[in-house]
Amino acid sequence: MLPTFICCDTLATSSKASNCTVIKGGAMSSRLQGLETSNNDSTLAHYAEVLKSLGAPPIEVQLDVDGKGKGLVATRDISEGETVFTERPLVSLQHTENKAQLVCHLCLRFIGTVERQIGHKLSCLVDDCKAAYRQAAPENDATRVAGDGDSDDDNEVDLEGALEAGERLEQLYSYVSRERIQDLSSGAERLPLTEDFQLPHPVPCRRGCGDLYCSSACEEESWQHSHCLLCTAAPPATTQPSAAAGCSSDPAAAGPSTVTASLADPSLEEPAAASAVDADAGAGSSSGCGSGSAGPSSSTTAREAEEASCSSSSSSSAAAAAAAETTSAGGKAGPVEELYGIRVDRRAMAAFAQHARETNEIFLLAAQVVAATLLRAAKALQHTGSMTAPSAPAQDSAAAAAATSSCANAPSEGSSAAAAVATCSSSGVAKEGATAEAAALSAAWRPYQFAWKRCWWEAVAVPDDVEDEEEFRGQLRELASDSLELLSAAISDPRFGPDLLNLQVYGSIVGMFELNNLGLSVSSPVEDFFLAVDEMEEGAEKEAVVRVTQPLLDALDSDYATPCEATAFLAIQSCINHSCDPNCTAACDTGDRTVTVLAQRDIPAGEEITLSYIDVSLPYKQRQAQLADYGFVCRCSRCTAEAAAARARRGASAKGGVKIGRRR
Ligand SMILES: C[S@@+](CC[C@H](N)C(=O)[O-])C[C@H]1O[C@@H](n2cnc3c(N)ncnc32)[C@H](O)[C@@H]1O
Predict the structure, then answer these.
(1) Is the shortest distance between the CB of 95 and ligand 1 below 6 Å?
(2) Which ligand 1 atom sits closest to the C-alpha of 24?
(3) Ligand 1 centre from 153 Cα, in Å?
(4) Most buried in the list 13, 224, 415, 490, measured by CB within 10 Å?
(5) What are the Low complexity biased-composition ranges (predicted)?
(6) What is the domain partition of the chain in residue ranges?
(7) In angstroms, rounded to a whole number, what is the distance separating the alpha carbons of residues 469 and 465?
């Protein structure tokens, strides 16, 4: 188990944004009302159910804790060091700029070998230097100098920046050659001591989109959760129309160019030769960093499960015919396919992902929520066989939401949305206006329904250098709109699309992350490796090891210790309010992909469970300034006491002012 530290990652929200659309409670948009109709009882029932699924920890969710909104409260005395609860993130994402660390796309565990990790980090450093150079000195324009008066800003040459990037690259290559970086990445060079730092063998995504996992179990879980929709790799050409037919459940939803393909990737049947190491092999190549390649996989289980799930679906002879026609005609599958009745365009998905990486990576997390929700809803419909039943002409999703939440068996995160559809349908609620589709969507949305949300472009903090707040917020809205347009081109489902893929909902999902995310940090085995070298007993053996490793350390510089950094959203942890004197801390275990909240002192029954969002060693004013960036004035007991003390001091000096009055 790697030591892991966690901090709250709730991104800044502006205290100026007092006119934000508050999704929680009253002011909901009609779109969100469709998904989010709830009352206090259904909110409490939901959290009680989630807590039960976590083994009934000694806490409960209360709806208004000291004016801070929902919070967690201890239901019995909790001792210092005791685990308060443990849960798994609903979604998580390694930060785009952290891609120099090779980790499992799902559980964030470091993968490969220490040598490969070092080779990959160096490849990324090389790429970064080259990118910085290209940015500073745009191609074909090397003669222009910044500020020469007649060039576009974009084409100006930043001589200082170009020089710096060039020098850094030169310095790097003075310690380690291109060939050595390549050898480390490919496994041709083994380093001493690394057998003490065994890491899981990487398992690539079955489609070869470049995502890597620590096991076929993680690959399978990710695929089933949302990756089968979000994967950017095109389906492989297939000659198995029957398998294709099984996976296609709604031919009517597919456009004319739709090709439904087998989910099994034939390339994965090949022997373990082309490993994802190849992605790094070309040290210094621009594809070396942050990308992988298809390679061997032990994901037979994943494929079997997928095939089993496909074969249980209602088969579509039309889609089978389309697939057969395409493969016999061209032998190649196109980038568009259909899963559980959801149309996916892989090329459009790649465009969405690129836009997100270039603008706001939180769009990638939002896409996970959208895809996971669509999948759960579609699978629920398929499970109940409702898909073949005629739908009511008009969807009344608000009624459906109410119907779903009023069902005694309404599911929580772990349970199937199908149960809600079945229960609601059999209880006759669906007949009263709620369609099976709306009930399925509402049930599938439930894991996110009760989270604290505000619309992203309204809630986000305004940077200090922004002069026109309205214009700034308009630009963010535009950005979200562009992102949604790209996502909608990539995944669509006429049964649920309009209720989920609309700007208000999308903005609220992105805003939900802004307000609730938890930052995760997993320390690197590369750091541990260099520490182990450093701690060797002085002598000839250490000297020999250092001769080999020191140039690598010099080349990596401070990057040798960079941890994996990620962001995650959790159902129960996201209910924990901040305190400047917190009684709990959080830690995560990449081994079982859990986050644990631990008591850092004795907590009596009835006391609120709190974490710190900021550095609480700062003095009062600085803490307030940081928390103002988070969009709230801290109401914790420490701040309340310090504010009272400050008021008392001001009062005393005001009395002193009366004395000054003696000047009269
Ligand atoms: C991660 S959420 C915590 C759960 C939230 N109270 C809810 O209703 O879901 C963070 C939000 O809770 C509120 N909050 C958290 N700690 C607070 C504090 N110390 N004082 C005032 N408001 C706080 C703020 O509105 C903040 O944006």
Answers:
(1) no
(2) 8
(3) 42
(4) 490
(5) 240-257, 271-284, 294-311
(6) 113-187+525-560, 199-348
(7) 10
In the reported structure, the alpha carbon of residue 577 is separated from the centroid of ligand 1 by a whole-number distance in angstroms of: 5
The 10s digit of each residue's pLDDT in 505-539 is 999 999 999 889 999 999 999 999 999 999 999 99
Q: Are 3 and 591 in contact (CB under 8 A)?
A: no
Ligand 1 atom at shortest distance from the alpha carbon of 635: 20
- CA 470 from centre of chain: 28
Answer for the pair 6, 588: CB distance below 8 angstroms, yes or no: yes
Q: Does ligand 1 lie within 6 Å of residue 629's CB atom?
A: no
Mean pLDDT computed over 232-243: 65
In percent, the amount of the chain with pLDDT more than 90 equals 57
Q: Are strands 4-8 and 584-589 parallel, antiparallel or unpaired?
A: unpaired
Residue 575 beta carbon below 6 angstroms from any ligand 1 atom: yes
Nearest to 373 by CA among 263, 497, 254: 497
Q: Which atom of ligand 1 is nearest to the CA of 68?
A: 22
Identify which of 306, 368, 366 has the alpha carbon closest to the alpha carbon of residue 337: 306
> Which token pair is 515?
């307000």
The Cα 369–Cα 371 span in angstroms is: 6
**Is-contact 620 633, C-beta < 8 A?**
no
- pLDDT at site 143: 47
How far does the centroid of ligand 1 lie from the alpha carbon of residue 97, in Å? 28
